[in-house]
Structures are given as structure tokens and as C-alpha cells.
Design a protein that fits this description.
heterodimer; A: 115 residues; 6-stranded mixed beta sheet; 11 strands; 0% helix; B: 114 residues
């Protein structure tokens, strides 16, 4: 079963506007969430994370929102830049035991920012 | 600080052969995780090592194995290669020892099995 889902395979945005990428999860044992950006044939690059005890975390142009009751998180990029064009992955991790070192990833969303 | 490094970057093997991939974590990081990325299955967790001990393992057959050395460097081995093992293999490191830590990824090793 897919415990982390990114239902939008792609998103197209104009430069300067806001990009909103969404992610849903089903496992209530997840207690921290991360967003990664990935270019083809490269490893994912960490962008921002959020703990389950928070509902918002900001870092520069990137903000992640977590709605635990809805099991939903989103990544906002403001303003979007052409260099943000990449595949964005949502990932989730749990506490201890079978969660050590294990992130569960969504399928990714391709973001294209047009000049 | 240097990032996570993986060698080799590209590899071509034939069915039935075995392969060993190497990963050097960020200095000071003691946890190393391995992932397989394929177009059909996405990014899937293989296993994690901390202080030379495997703490967690994903749902992969026993042909996939790994180890970690005292300097935290890690290797993964795939024996009796199958065509379906063609993938991008990614290594990630984190500080350890807790489970809720940011993982930083290397560039990956692209394996092609013919």
C-alpha cells in the first residue's frame, strides 16, 4: 500500500507566483516529514522538514504546512523561480524500531516554473 | 563539509553477476541508509546501518545485503543480478542515533543489468 501519496504528477507555474505542492499520508505513526528536490540522475536534495508537533515551518522562500487531522502536508514556494523546476518528493519517517533510517517517499511531483 | 559520496557513479553488469556499491557519509554522521529508485516503484528503502549494525531492513530479497565499517563508510552488495535490479541506488547519511533525523543523499550509483 502507498502510505505517502502525491496525487499531482506535475505542476506548472509562472515565475514569481506561488507553487503549492501537496502530499497525503495514511500512517498515523509518522512523526516527521521532509521535502526533497531532485534533478534527473542526481540524489535528492533536502529542502525543509517539519515535526508532527508543529503545523508550520519556514525557511526562506519555502514553507511547509502540516494538517495532522487531515493527514496532509503542503510545500509552498514563494516566489517561484525557473531554477525551482525539478521533481519534488514528500517523505515521512517514524519513531524508533522499524523506523530507524527509513523514509517513505511519495511518487514525486514535477514542478515547471515558466519565465 | 563534504557531502555524501558514492562510487562508482555508473555500472554495467550482466545477469547472474554480483556488484558492490560504496558510500561515504558526511563526516560525523553515523547512520547510513540505502534506497533503490526505479520508474515503476519510486524510491524504496533497502536497509539502514548505525555503528556497524543493521537496525532496519526493507522488503527486498536476501540477494541485497550491506555492511558498515568502523569509519561509518558503508557498502551494499547485490548477488545474482537480475534485469529488474537496474536502478539508481542512493545512499543517505544522518547523524544517528535517533530515528527522526534529516537524511542527506549522495548522487547515486546508476546500475544497468544486461
Amino acid at each position: 500500500d502507498q502510505q505517502v501519496k502525491q496525487n499531482s504528477p506535475s505542476l506548472s507555474v509562472q515565475e514569481g507566483r506561488i507553487s503549492i505542492l501537496n502530499c497525503d499520508y495514511t500512517n498515523s505513526m509518522f512523526d516527521y516529514f521532509l521535502w526533497y528536490k531532485k534533478y534527473p540522475a542526481e540524489g535528492p536534495t533536502f529542502l525543509i522538514s517539519i515535526s508532527s508537533i508543529k503545523d508550520k515551518n519556514e525557511d526562506g522562500r519555502f514553507t511547509v504546512f502540516l494538517n495532522k487531522s487531515a493527514k496532509h502536508l503542503s510545500l509552498h514556494i514563494v516566489p517561484s523561480q525557473p531554477g525551482d523546476s525539478a521533481v519534488y518528493f514528500c517523505a515521512a519517517g517514524g519513531k524508533g524500531g522499524t523506523s530507524y533510517g527509513k523514509l517513505t517517499f511519495g511518487q514525486g511531483t514535477i514542478l515547471t516554473v515558466h519565465p | 563539509k563534504a557531502g555524501v559520496t558514492q562510487t562508482p557513479r555508473y555500472l554495467i553488469k550482466t545477469r547472474g553477476q554480483q556488484v558492490t556499491l560504496s558510500c561515504s557519509p558526511i563526516s560525523g554522521h553515523r547512520s547510513v541508509s540505502w534506497y533503490q529508485q526505479t520508474p515503476g516503484q519510486g524510491l524504496q528503502f533497502l536497509f539502514e546501518y548505525f555503528s556497524e549494525t543493521q537496525r532496519n531492513k526493507g522488503n527486498f530479497p536476501g540477494r541485497f545485503s550491506g555492511r558498515q565499517f568502523s569509519n561509518s563508510r558503508s557498502e551494499m552488495n547485490v548477488s545474482t543480478l537480475e534485469l529488474g535490479d537496474s536502478a539508481l541506488y542512493l545512499c543517505a547519511s544522518s547523524l544517528g542515533p535517533t530515528s527522526s533525523e534529516t537524511q542527506y543523499f549522495g548522487p547515486g550509483t546508476r546500475l544497468l543489468v544486461l
